[in-house]
């Protein structure tokens, strides 16, 4: 939450200075390919392959082997990220043409410059993913997910400090350098906690170190699977670059809001669950694993289903309150809100994929999620291309929703075949209660937003969201949703949770 709040502060400042103009499009496109590299080698893929092996060693008391594994993996990451950064700088023009084929002239030149500045940053962020893997396995969750706050703070400081003196191209290049500095600081704040946990770790590239071959064997298919997902992200940007100016930025702003529940709840629940699922999978019985999977999905649904309805019903007020300032005007708000409403459909599926994939990873199966992802992305990209002809950038978001739900259905079927049914009747009831409560909350919140639509945008957003949250909370408590009761108990007895 801390990281995301600071992220929205950063993006509000970004909107103030750049709106959804040429510099905003260039920055969004320049972040795309380097971010693909980060996601291929970073948090998601590394956690899926490294944490189950590392956690298993810790669980069995093989501390020395675990340290040797950690040292070898970070050595491999340093080598890979250094090579990726060098190639990124060298091939920046080609990367730009791949990411944004619709760019030309000044917009293309600016994007090339930004790619060259930003590429080394993602090498640093990949190393931060290694820190996350170590910390999460040792049940240190706060620091690993709060550390990106430093990255946001560096960019906020750049915009606040230089926004009154630089404009347009010079300011967006300065922002890119601020992001690079922030990425280095993100690693620095984690190392004092990480290094004592791997004391005695030895650097090296030997594949004969305990567990290394297992991690690499699991890592490769996950990288391919993540590659498919990232290709879809690149395709979205490519398609948006062919639409009128501002479409790339509109997708980016809408994604920032839509990704919030995915990051807070999907990533959070999956991050906590993966080490525990890996421990549960060590035994012969999978009952504990099935129980934890069901619990994770129920927790996600409680928070994510209402998030999706809120985005659809109150998206215009949210976007206006967060971004409508300076160069970002009411027309930009309407465009981004439409894209956000389309993304809202995908949010429950995108978060559920996180926990379902973790179930496969805990069982040592990294190939099944990859195969499913390939099919889902093909469907998503083709659907997005067809729908954008009618709905513009919102059509691209609708295509993503179609692919996400296909992904959830196929992953669920595969897990059920291997584990048996892992959702009880009570779990299904909780999903229905969440959806029913969210519908009533959206109706109430939407009515408040309509009544206050001529008032200050912050008043409209805050009041409508308050009513939405209150209605949802009350109805889920009245209907005895288990997560609502647990949340109230946690608030009453925080020291016992």
- Helical fraction equals over 70%
Number-wise, the strands total 0
Q: What is the alpha-carbon Rg in Å?
A: 22 Å
Number of helices: 19
Shape: globular
Q: Gap between N and C termini, in Å?
A: 19 Å
Q: Extract low-pLDDT stretches.
A: none
| Biggest beta sheet attributes | none
Mean of all residue-level pLDDT scores: 83
What share of residues are in beta strands? under 5%
Structural class, from secondary structure content?
mainly alpha
| H and E string | HHHHHHHHHHHHHHHHHHH
Please tag this protein with its features.
mainly alpha, 84% helix
Q: What can you see in these coordinates?
A:
The structure is a single chain. The protein is mostly helical and 497 residues long. 84% of the residues lie in helices and 0% in strands. α2 runs parallel beside α6 and α12 packs parallel to α14. The longest helix is centred in the middle third of the chain and has 37 residues. It is globular.
Summarize the helices and strands and which ones pair or pack.
Blueprint: H1 2-18, H2 22-41, H3 43-59, H4 63-90, H5 92-99, H6 105-137, H7 141-146, H8 148-162, H9 168-188, H10 191-197, H11 212-241, H12 247-280, H13 287-323, H14 330-362, H15 368-391, H16 393-419, H17 425-451, H18 457-478, H19 482-492
Helix pairs in contact: 1-8, 2-3, 2-6, 2-11, 2-12, 3-4, 3-6, 3-11, 3-12, 4-6, 5-6, 6-9, 8-9, 11-15, 12-13, 12-14, 13-14, 13-17, 13-18, 14-16, 15-16, 17-18
In a few lines, what is going on in this structure?
The protein is 84% helix and 0% strand. The chain has 19 helices and no strands.
């Amino acid at each position: 939450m801390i990281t995301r709040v600071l992220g929205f502060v950063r993006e509000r400042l970004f909107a103030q200075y750049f709106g959804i103009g040429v510099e905003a499009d260039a920055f969004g496109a320049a972040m795309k390919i380097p971010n693909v590299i980060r996601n291929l080698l970073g948090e998601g893929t590394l956690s899926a392959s490294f944490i189950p092996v590392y956690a298993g060693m810790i669980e069995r008391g093989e501390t020395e082997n675990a340290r040797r594994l950690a040292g070898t993996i970070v050595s491999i990451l340093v080598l890979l990220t250094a090579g990726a950064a060098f190639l990124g700088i060298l091939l920046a023009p080609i990367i730009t043409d791949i990411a944004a084929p619709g760019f030309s002239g000044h917009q293309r030149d600016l994007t090339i410059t930004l790619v060259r500045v930003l590429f080394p940053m993602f090498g640093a962020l990949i190393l931060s993913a290694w820190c996350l893997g170590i910390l999460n396995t040792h049940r240190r969750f706060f620091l690993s997910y709060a550390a990106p706050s430093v990255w946001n703070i560096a960019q906020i400081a750049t915009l606040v400090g230089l926004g009154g003196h630089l404009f347009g191209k010079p300011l967006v290049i300065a922002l890119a350098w601020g992001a690079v500095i922030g990425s280095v600081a993100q690693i620095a704040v984690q190392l004092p906690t990480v290094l004592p946990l791997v004391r005695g770790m030895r650097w090296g590239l030997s594949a004969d170190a305990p567990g290394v071959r297992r991690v690499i064997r699991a890592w490769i298919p996950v990288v391919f699977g993540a590659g498919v997902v990232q290709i879809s992200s690149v395709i979205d940007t490519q398609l948006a670059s062919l639409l009128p100016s501002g479409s790339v930025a509109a997708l980016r702003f809408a994604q920032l809001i839509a990704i919030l529940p995915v990051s807070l709840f999907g990533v959070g629940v999956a991050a906590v669950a993966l080490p525990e699922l890996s421990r549960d999978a060590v035994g012969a019985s999978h009952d504990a694993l099935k129980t934890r999977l069901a619990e994770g999905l129920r927790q996600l649904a409680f928070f994510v289903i209402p998030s999706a309805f809120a985005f659809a019903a109150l998206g215009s007020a949210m976007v206006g309150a967060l971004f409508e300032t300076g160069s970002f005007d009411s027309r930009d708000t309407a465009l981004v809100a439409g894209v956000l409403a389309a993304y809202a459909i995908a949010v429950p599926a995108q978060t559920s994929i996180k926990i379902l994939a973790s179930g496969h990873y805990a069982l040592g199966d990294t190939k099944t999620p990859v195969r499913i992802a390939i099919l889902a992305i093909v469907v998503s990209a083709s659907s997005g291309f067809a729908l954008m002809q009618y709905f513009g950038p919102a059509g691209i978001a609708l295509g993503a929703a179609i692919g996400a739900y296909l992904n959830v259905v196929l992953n669920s079927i595969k897990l059920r075949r291997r584990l048996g049914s892992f959702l009880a009747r009570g779990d299904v009831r909780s999903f229905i209660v969440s959806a029913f409560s969210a519908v009533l909350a959206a109706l109430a919140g939407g009515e408040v937003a309509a009544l206050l639509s001529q008032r200050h945008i912050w008043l409209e957003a805050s009041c409508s969201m308050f009513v939405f949250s209150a209605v949802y909370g009350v109805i889920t408590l009245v209907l005895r949703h288990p997560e609502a009761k647990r949340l109230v108990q946690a608030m009453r007895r925080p020291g016992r949770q």
